[in-house]
Amino acid sequence: MVSKEVFTFSSSDGVHQVSAVWWRPEGSPRGVVQLVHGISEHMGRYDSFARFLAEQGFAVVGHDHLGHGGTAQDASEYGWFADRDGWRYVLEDTHALFLRSSQTYPELPYFLMGHSMGSFVARGFLIFWPGAADGAILSGTGQEPPLTVAAGRILSALFTRLSGPRAHSRLLNALSVGAYNKQFKPNRTGADWISRDPAVVDAYCADPLCRFLPTVSMFHDMMVGLQLLARPENLANMDPDTPVYFFSGDKDPVGASGKGVQKVAGWFRKAGVKDVTVKLYHDGRHEMLNELNREEVCQDVLHWLEQHLV
Description:
Rossmann fold, 38% helix
């Protein structure tokens, strides 16, 4: 039987208590998987997948980012990392949980798995703490063109100065997350892009811990992060011996229908990473763990993990 334990730890921002959860298998685990969730969601959405891995003998841990889920002090903080340096805090909180969790099971192989924005965080983790994790899994990743990222950084910085870091901009949202639904017209909801499964989409739309608009400062933090992730000198910091598994739907707008995923995987290979695997699922959208073929996807993740147990 899988056990579940909710706990907290101090955020790197010196203010918040980060909400986190362990899923542990019955008996001794054979590896640890740290989950890093995406924007405008929370770790509770990963309960089914975490239980699946725990049933296969993995201890699974994850946390709610600043401005998300149980880490936000109230609803006014949804979509806000910090007034400044938010991207750094999100990275450092992820590393802090890694230190805590790896010390709990120091003898076990440790894998980092990030989805969407969480995949960007995981990519930053590989750059700033090379060799810390024994492997990484990147779900629903991608990379906007440099000019788009630069323009987004300038525009979001301007809105932050004019309106304050906790303000919202429907223009910024329309140019980013709000644009993802366009390729799936006619739209049934504003979140058709996440999955072909209407039950998943409806649950997401009804979840009060999802669907909030990111603040202008969070958009700026994201653009700062994406610029850091694209620099060849930063990519060169990664440990070439850390294996990386990319998976995505080939209709995922975040990954430019697979092109963005392949681009980032190519950067990793060019940076010297020796073991890079890419799997694109036909007709899959953004959340492959919540797609119609999620059982296949989960089995593929498990297979990759088992291949890389040391």
